[in-house]
Specification:
The protein is of the alpha+beta class and about 375 residues long. It is built from nine helices and 17 strands. It folds into two domains: about 240 residues, Zn peptidases (Aminopeptidase); about 80 residues, Elongation Factor Tu (Ef-tu), domain 3, CATH 2.40.30.40. Helix 1 packs across helix 4 and helix 6 packs across helix 8. The longest helix is centred in the C-terminal third of the chain and has 16 residues. The chain binds zinc ion.
């Protein structure tokens, strides 16, 4: 395989300045689960020039269908979630101090001192802890969510209220070969899906689902999978890259292999085998791997284990929908700042597009 020249991919989408700018807009938008409006608005504006078959369903998913030209096209659902993990104010304690809750998988210990934006008015605040961390005992203590508050200052207290969402205020930045942003999980998938719609391969019906509420239990994908009723599904997401060296102070791990390793930056799109909610379809895994090798696109196999994404809901829909996932690896996912490599994004989009372009009913007709 390695000695053959790379084949040409039909009309591959390109990631250039405009695509990076769009990703920046998507990442800087605030759209915690259940409040995806800001991202939905950008998605609608971006997909409408490419298909008239666009609808927003009752939960807020954007379903955009672009039909191919084949007589019996494979109907492929490609999904990416619009929501991000975040916070919600739950109680006004006066003087601009608010008690808050966590929406999605966030660790309270990582929140102290982080700047946030609250409500539709994007009122700036900071996550504080009433008790000062001073001595060694305090430093090692587990920080309960109850001990934290969002502080917007007394002057701004009237501009926010319990029920308002809050997101981290991190802004998008380019750092050499990397991109840093909040919500890279899964705006990177949303940006990729927009590009796939723009450059949809003619051999398939592309059923694009920009889903809501993934981070709180794959809720939007469940109804989107039912409504679209595809032959198969490809989920595009961002997955943790736990590829830093083991911490020297961790006596169990010191000098040993990184036990948490699952993907690493720079090694290409991460193809899933299994996670906590899905055994990914072996025929589709094979199709992705064979396509990557055929077109000389780097890829990695995400190490099996926990986590999960919209595939967990989609593959169990109706009478079963063969599903597979592919992710851009990201460091520090579900924190205020995630880092990805631009090359990994380019290769993920390239592989997704090539794999869709090569799809025929024969891919699912083989023995598993
Ligand atoms: Zn995700």
């Amino acid at each position: 395989m390695a000695t053959q020249p790379a084949l040409e991919i039909p009309r591959p989408p390109r990631i250039a300045e405009a695509q990076i700018r769009l990703l920046e807009r998507l990442c800087n938008a605030c759209a915690v689960s259940g409040n995806e409006g800001e991202v939905r608005k950008i998605v609608l504006e971006q997909v409408k020039p490419y298909t008239s078959d666009v609808r927003v369903d009752a939960l807020g998913n954007v379903l955009a269908v672009r039909r191919g030209q084949a007589s019996q096209p494979v109907r492929v659902m490609v999904a990416a979630h619009m929501d991000e993990v975040g916070l919600m104010l739950v109680d006004d304690e006066g003087d601009g101090i608010f008690r808050f809750d966590i929406i999605g998988g966030l660790n309270a210990a990582q929140l102290v001192g982080k700047p946030v934006l609250v409500g539709r008015g994007r009122v700036p605040g900071v996550i504080g802890r009433p008790i000062r961390i001073s001595d060694d005992e305090d430093r090692d203590e587990k920080i309960p969510l109850d001990a934290l508050r969002i502080d917007v200052s007394p002057d701004n207290a009237k501009r926010v209220k319990p029920g308002d969402y809050a997101t981290f205020s991190t802004t998008f930045a380019r750092l050499g070969p990397s991109l840093r942003a909040k919500a890279m999980d899964d705006r990177i998938g949303v940006a990729s899906l927009i590009e796939l719609l723009r450059n949809a391969p003619p051999n398939i019906d592309l059923l694009a689902a920009f889903t809501v509420q993934e981070e709180v239990g794959l809720r939007g994908a469940r109804v989107a999978g039912y409504a679209l009723n595809p032959d198969l599904a490809l989920i595009l997401d961002c997955t943790p890259a736990r590829d830093l060296p083991a911490w020297e102070g961790d006596s169990q791990a010191a000098g040993q292999e990184n036990r948490l390793y699952n993907t690493r930056l720079g090694a290409g799109p991460a193809i899933y085998i299994s996670d906590a909610s899905t055994i990914h379809d072996p025929r589709l895994i094979r199709h992705l791997v064979e396509t990557a090798e055929q077109f000389h696109i780097p890829y990695q196999i995400r190490q099996p284990g926990g986590g999960g994404n919209d595939a967990g809901a989609v593959h169990r829909q109706r009478t079963g929908i063969p599903s597979v996932s592919m992710s851009v690896p990201g460091r520090y996912i579900h924190t205020p700042a995630t880092i990805i490599r631009l090359e990994d994004w380019k290769n993920t989009l390239k592989l997704a597009h090539a794999a869709l372009s090569q799809l025929t009913p024969a891919v699912l007709a083989v023995e598993r």
